[in-house]
């Protein structure tokens, strides 16, 4: 009798298969600057639904993405450009609990300033303000295609694609840092 494998076991087996092939991430995930990320262009959803989606598909072994290194942000933007995705993606940051206190899903702080948040473009046709600038109406973090994939605070009910992050041995300590 063949035993059914649960999602957690399948993820672990996929990770081992990926590692055996020399990849640092399981099949389906893209390694970008040491992080295992999965861009889900097949679905559009609110930020809240994206949080649950990433928790569900990783069976608790990941979350809506955390991007806390400039090289990772650049790598994601290059990946999006290379594959001509042209979509906005949800990240796991929010200031919904305390306005202006941006936190990742693991309760660590979202970095501010360059190179993360979109700044004023200086061009009349791209009259962006410095982000985050949405106040209490925009509490969720996205990589906005219209802001060249820099961080942008947007209303949580907008519909974007989830960008999921899978914990790995090297990143597992990241979720416990405060």
From TrEMBL:
InterPro entries the UniProt entry points to: C-type_lectin-like, C-type_lectin-like/link_sf, CTDL_fold
Ranges where the C-type lectin domain occurs: 32-165
Full protein name: C-type lectin domain-containing protein
Stretch forming the signal peptide: 1-22
Cross-referenced Pfam families: Lectin_C
Alphabetical UniProt keywords: Signal
UniProt xrefs under SMART domains: CLECT
PROSITE patterns: C_TYPE_LECTIN_2
Keyword Lyase (UniProt): no
Organism (species): Meganyctiphanes norvegica (Northern krill)
The keyword Signal appears for this protein: yes
């Amino acid at each position: 009798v063949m035993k059914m494998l649960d999602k957690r076991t399948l993820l672990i087996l996929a990770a081992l298969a990926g590692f055996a092939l020399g990849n640092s991430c399981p099949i389906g995930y893209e390694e970008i600057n040491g992080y295992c990320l999965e861009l889900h262009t097949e679905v559009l959803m609110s930020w809240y639904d994206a949080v649950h989606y990433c928790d569900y598909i990783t069976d608790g072994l990941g979350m809506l993405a955390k991007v806390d290194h400039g090289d990772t942000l650049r790598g994601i933007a290059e990946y999006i450009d290379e594959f001509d995705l042209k979509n906005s993606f949800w990240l796991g940051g929010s200031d919904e609990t305390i306005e202006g206190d941006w936190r990742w899903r693991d309760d660590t702080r979202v970095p501010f300033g360059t190179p993360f948040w979109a700044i004023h473009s200086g061009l009349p046709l791209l009259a962006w303000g410095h982000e985050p600038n949405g106040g209490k109406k925009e509490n969720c973090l996205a990589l906005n295609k219209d802001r060249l994939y820099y961080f942008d605070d947007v209303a949580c009910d907008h519909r974007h694609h989830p960008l999921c992050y899978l914990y790995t041995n090297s990143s597992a300590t990241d979720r416990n840092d405060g």
